Amino acid sequence: QVQLVQSGAEVRKPGASVKVSCKASGYTFTSYYVHWVRQAPGQGLEWMAIINPSGGSTNYAQKFQGRVTMTSDTSTSTVYMELSSLRSEDTAVYYCARGLAAGDYWGQGTLVTVSS
Amino acid sequence: EIVLTQSPGTLSLSPGERATLSCRASQSVSSTYLAWYQQKPGQAPRLLIYGASSRATGIPDRFSGSGSGTDFTLTISRLEPEDFAVYYCQQYGSTQWTFGQGTKVEIK
Prior knowledge:
- The structure holds 2 protein chains of 2 kinds.
- Chain A is built from no helices and 11 strands.
- Chain A is mainly β.
- In chain A, strands 2, 4, 5, 6, 9, 10 and 11 form a 7-stranded mixed β-sheet that branches. In chain A, strands 1-3-8-7 form a 4-stranded antiparallel β-sheet, with no helix packed on it.
- In chain A, strand 9 and strand 10 form a beta hairpin.
- In chain A, 38% of the residues are buried.
- The model of chain A has no long low-confidence stretch (mean pLDDT 97).
- By secondary structure, chain B is an all-beta fold.
- In chain B, the strands form 2 sheets. In chain B, strands 2, 4, 5, 6, 8, 9 and 10 form a 7-stranded mixed β-sheet that branches. In chain B, strands 1-3-7 form a 3-stranded antiparallel β-sheet, with no helix packed on it.
- In chain B, a hairpin with a 3-residue loop joins strand 5 and strand 6.
- The mean pLDDT of chain B is 97.
- The chains are: A mainly beta, B mainly beta.
């Protein structure tokens, strides 16, 4: 069965970076794009980035340009999202999702807390 | 960038009632690229509808999607207790997603 399993919760200080992983299984990793979406406490869904694991091409939301980097490792079927220069407003649950036009499978979410 | 506006913000209904949720786009969206999700507290979003009107795998037929251009609708024909949740519309374009702000369906 298709699964996206994300890494565990993280706590960072303002100005630091965080790298969240999303390990895929149950399907051909290079056949599906992967997105990252975040959700601040009590807020809606916010799209951040997309990667094509076949080739590694990416696209980032303008809001995160220069701060986010999305990569993939085909040997481990894992996608990574790194967010730098963290601020308190980056405290959120970060999700990975499979698909191009819509996300048919989602990871369980990773809580990233930014606090001094 | 296309902006999606969902209405109402909150819908208060009783089990068994019909729910009609609206999603309006700031410019025309291809029906192929309009999706709806359900999210319950503490859970990841769940895909309900893709391509504006196609139900995702395992989604009950009480959920239906319709619309085209700038106006899209998610209808839940008869609310079950497990349907009380937040619903988001989402569009795909230029290799990115945009979400509406969500509609909360709560028990009246």
